[in-house]
């Protein structure tokens, strides 16, 4: 197998990044600079990156994508629009489904960019079921997508099924779940040949 056969091509040379920009529109959210070292080092399960995948220009439907840093586990949700309200509502629904305790154990932190849909950090962090915070949100530096490389690579896999310019409205929830399952069962070189689901079983069974 060569590089051209891979779903995500290996980059031969990485860009150098030196200058850190300040987010003009996000003065209150916690910076990635304050994120604990164990999150960066992928030591434990429960630290996620979050992003949105947009569709055809002029349409509103998007995908909310959550990628776990240690296992590369993928969660994909269809949203009617790219808005703060939709992001919080989707996380609220997930918390109700999982229960507050399980949600807190699963989503210890979430790292995202400074897109307008992600800026309601209070709504993202606040539990809809209890008085306790359900997670902690960190914001990457502007123009530093490489700080969320796990998420960016996962989005490339999604684009195999939903290419740029596709109308996300036309993709059923069943189709989106199929894409999620394919990604979670796809063997990864970075996981030593295991899929995300296989690694999850090792973590929680052993």
Walk me through this protein's architecture.
Helices cover 31% and strands 14% of the residues. Strand 4 (109-112), helix 4 (121-125) and strand 5 form a beta-alpha-beta unit. It is an alpha/beta fold and 206 residues long. The chain has a 5-stranded mixed beta sheet with strand order 3-2-1-4-5, sandwiched between helices. It is globular. It has one domain: Nucleotidyltransferase, domain 5 (2-Layer Sandwich), CATH 3.30.420.10.
Topology record:
Layout: H1 37-40, E1 47-54, E2 62-68, E3 74-79, H2 84-98, H3 100-106, E4 109-112, H4 121-125, E5 136-139, H5 149-158, H6 173-184, H7 196-205
Helix pairs in contact: 2-3
How many DSSP E strands?
Answer: 5
Net shape: globular
In CATH terms, what is the architecture? 2-Layer Sandwich
Instruction: Measure the end-to-end span.
Output: 33 Å
- CATH superfamily membership: Ribonuclease H-like superfamily/Ribonuclease H
Biggest sheet character: 5 strands, mixed
The top-level CATH class is Alpha Beta
Offer a quick outline of the entry.
With 206 residues, the chain is an alpha/beta fold.
Essential attributes:
Nucleotidyltransferase, domain 5, five-stranded mixed sheet, 14% strand, globular
């Amino acid at each position: 197998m060569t590089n051209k056969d891979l779903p995500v091509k290996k980059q031969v040379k990485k860009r150098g990044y030196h200058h850190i920009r300040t987010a003009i529109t996000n003065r209150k959210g916690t910076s990635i600079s304050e994120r604990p070292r164990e999150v960066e080092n992928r030591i434990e399960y429960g630290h996620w990156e979050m992003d949105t995948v947009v569709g055809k220009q002029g349409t509103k439907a998007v995908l909310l994508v959550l990628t776990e840093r240690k296992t590369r586990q993928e969660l994909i949700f269809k949203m009617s629009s790219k808005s703060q309200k939709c992001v919080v509502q989707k996380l609220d629904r997930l918390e109700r489904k999982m229960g507050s305790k399980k949600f807190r154990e699963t989503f210890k932190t979430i790292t995202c960019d400074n897109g307008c849909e992600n800026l309601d950090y209070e709504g993202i962090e606040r539990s809809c079921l209890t008085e306790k915070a359900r997670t902690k949100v960190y914001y990457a530096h502007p123009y530093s997508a490489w700080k969320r490389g796990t998420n960016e690579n996962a989005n490339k896999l999604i684009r195999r099924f939903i290419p740029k310019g596709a109308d996300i409205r036309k993709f059923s929830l069943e189709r989106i779940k199929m894409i999620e399952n394919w990604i979670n069962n796809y063997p990864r070189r970075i996981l030593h040949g295991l899929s995300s689901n296989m690694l999850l079983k090792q973590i929680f069974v052993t």
